[in-house]
Amino acid sequence: CLAEATVAKVELNAFTELRDEKSVMADVEAAQARWERGEARSPVDGLLFAVKDNICQAQTRSSAASRMLSNFVAPYDATCVSRLQAAGAIPMGRTNQDEFGMGSFGLNSYYGPSYRPGDHRVAGGSSSGSAIAVATEACHFALGSDTGGSVRLPAAFCGVMGFKPSYGRISRHGLISYASSLDTIGLLSGDVGIIAEAFGVCAGPDSNDSTCITSPLESCPLPNETQSDAAAIPLRVGIPVEYNVAELSEDARAAWHAQVEHVKICLGPETSIVPMSVPSVRDALPAYYVLACAEASSNLARYDGVQYGHRAAWSDDFETLHQEYTASRTEGFGAEVQRRILMGAHVLSAEAFDTLYLRANAVRDALREDFSAVFHHVDFLITPVAPGPAPTPEEAAQQDLVQSYLTDVMTVPSSLAGLPSMALPFARTSTSQEDVGSYQLIAGPRQDAKLLS
Ligand code: GLN
Asked: Considering the chain, what is the average pLDDT of its residues?
């Protein structure tokens, strides 16, 4: 793993920092000794994991890939990190991302863009480095964060699995906030069994996060334990027609058909495939960008360069403290983050609040209702993850804003509804299929364990 990690850091810019090899090896040897003595702490004991740069690790620079926090050393571990470490898992490095989680391509980082392995196309964002780390086998699994698709999209572009749990299943304590009502810590790996075990360790209530789900986590059987059950209980899989958007490429539409057939074979011949309608999905993307920007502008107001974060040098031209704040924020935030703050400040302003912010909230309520109705009739929904293949960095840079925001059209509906969703790779046999080969399964409220099994 460590040799792969160095290559992923140097060639693909997947890591903002790698832990020193000697201390990782010491942890690995200690874990090996525990397994040999029959004293392993958990199934993830000894597994290496990477941590997205917006998830705090004690005594480690935790910067959300922003210049604003490039000098910030976290004083504590995020809950998910401390739980994984207590279970014996070994952090091995911090992964690159879009600044504060804002982006879909992994190109908006203070530390520069990252690329997926093989063809130097974009890795997807914002958890770009976590997806590359897993795809290059630099670690066994990686932590990411998903506000509107940031675990699922890079997982799809890099051909690995990306799991976004229900909102509130994994504590957000220690996650640097983007949009608090949507931010969800998620897991990426090439192995669903590892995702299930690591999720079991991370999930559960936390006194440091009042938005955590408090009901107990269902047990999460591994896939091989459930195969016979799956064949015995016929499942119903819904195809939500609103995801068949005009922007969906022909290849992606063809792949979606093949994926439905594949899922039917996996789940058994009794499985029924049912077309469904989730009408409010049509309004999900604009509603997401209104709500996410509103919350971002509020969350990011704390960065004034005074208590912590980047502080601009004092200039004799400054007459007020406000000018000092402005200079620090202008230097500290990248262009996309500044744009989101401006859009958020606008939608929260007196003139736009009712027409934009409240309307977006109403769309969110409608989505929750529509999805709950649908999950009375089906067990899962199957959709594409992205409307088209991963662009090259040049193609991504040429897209206008609306085009680039459209990349998230398949992932934001389940974020707004807080539903567990997962990106799964499929048909990785030719280059064109590889690009559109992943699909998304969405499960009903709090059905994380069912989705993983
Ligand atoms: N691409 C979306 C955005 O920029 C989603 C990002 C995320 O899930 N963090 O807001």
From this structure: 94
The CATH class of 2-202 is alpha beta
Q: How far is the CA of 365 from the centre of ligand 1 (A)?
A: 20
CA 55-391-260 angle, 5° bins: 85
- Residue pLDDT, tens place only, 255-270: 999 999 999 988 888 9
Nearest CA to ligand 1 atom 10: 102
User: What are the residue ranges spanned by the domains of the chain?
Assistant: 2-202
Q: Where are the beta strands (DSSP E) in 57-147?
A: 90-95, 141-146
Ligand 1 atom closest to residue 101's alpha carbon, by position in its atom list: 9
Phi, psi torsion values for 226, nearest 5 degrees: -110, -5
The pTM score is: 0.96
Least confident residue range of 72-86, 97-111, 223-237:
223-237
- Cis, bond preceding 62 (omega within 30 deg of 0): no
Could you please report the per-residue DSSP string of 296-321? Answer: HHHHGGG--SSSSS--PPP-TT--SH
- What would you measure as the largest C-alpha separation in the chain, in angstroms? 76
CA of residue 22 to ligand 1 center, whole Å: 35
Q: What is the pLDDT of residues 349-401, one digit of tens each?
A: 999 999 999 999 999 999 999 999 999 999 999 999 999 999 999 999 999 99
Amino acid at 6: T
**286 CB neighbour count, 10 Å cutoff:** 16
Stretch 426-440: mean pLDDT: 63
Give pLDDT, residue 432: 47
